[in-house]
Amino acid sequence: MSTSQISERRPIRANPRTSTARSRRPVAMASGRAVTMARSRSMVTDAVALVLHRCMERETSFWVWPSEMWLELIAPDAAEFLAAWPGWIDGMVRPYVAAFAYLLGGFTDFHPLGNFNRRSLAWRVFGKDIVEDAVDRVAGTLQGWGYHPSGGSFGQFRTVLIQARLVNRSPLLQDLTSEALATIRQDPTNTPHHLRDHFRGLHKALFALGHAGPPPRSIHGVMPDIEGVPDAWAKMIERWYTTSTLAHKVRGSYPPLLVRTAAHARCSTSLRQTLSNSAWNLRPGSALAARYSACCKARTGSRGRDPEAAGLA
Prior knowledge:
Blueprint: H1 3-8, H2 16-58, H3 67-74, H4 78-84, H5 94-105, H6 118-126, H7 128-144, H8 152-168, H9 178-186, H10 196-208, H11 231-243, H12 248-251, H13 254-265, H14 269-275, H15 278-282, H16 284-301
C-alpha cells in the first residue's frame, strides 16, 4: 500500500457514547477515591476535636486518662456515642476515636464495646496487609489439620486472633509467645467461654509455626494409654489427639472408641493398607470414616468377612 493510499483512508471514528463513557470512568474512580480520602480526613479531624474537647472539659491531658475515661468518650455503642454529640458528628467518627484511644492511651478494654469491629481497628493501627496475612497463615495451618471454620465460625476465629494481637500491641505472630498468650488468657474478657476453642486452636497453630510452646494441658480429657493395637493405628490416634482442635473434654472421649475400632481393623487388609499409606496420614479424616464404616458394616452383616470381600471397602 502506497503512502497516498494510506493518506486517503478514512480515519476510524470512535463511538461517541462509548468513548465518552470510557473517558469518564477513570475520572469517576479518581473522584470516588478523592471523596473517600476527604471523608476519612474529615472523620480523623472530628475525632481529634472530640479528644481535645474532652481535655478542655476535664482540664486534663489525654495521656493521663484512665481506661474508664476513654471508654466514656468512645461509648458502649454507636447510639450512645451519637447521643452525646447530637447533630455535631457522624457515627463513623467513633472507630477513629477508638484508634486514638488505643494508640495514645493504651486502651485495650474492648469487651464493654460489645460488637465493636476489631478488624477495622487493627487495619487502622497496624495496616490491612499485615493483619490479613497473619490470619491467612494461621487459618492455613489449621486447615491443614482438617479444621475448616466457615461462616460465622471463621469470623469468631478471626476476631480471637485479631483481639490477641491488639491486646499484645503487636501485629506480628512471633510476638504471640507462650508468655503473651498466658497473659491474654488470664483476662476472661479476652477469651469468653464461646471463643475458648478458637483460642486453643490459635495457640496450637502458633506452636506448629514455632512462635509459642504447646498449649497448657487441660484437667479434662486426658489421653488414655494405647495398648493391644497395631503400631500404625496407635500412631494415628496419637497424631489425631495431638493435632485436633477439639476441646480436651471432648477430645478425650474419642481415643477409646478408636482403640476399639482397631479390633475391626484386624479383619481388613484394605484398612491396614490405608494405615500404612503415607498420603493418607496427611488427611486422615475422610479415609478413616470410610474404612471404619466399611469395617462396621462388614462385621454387622457378616462376622469375620473382609470388607473388601463384602464389596464395602
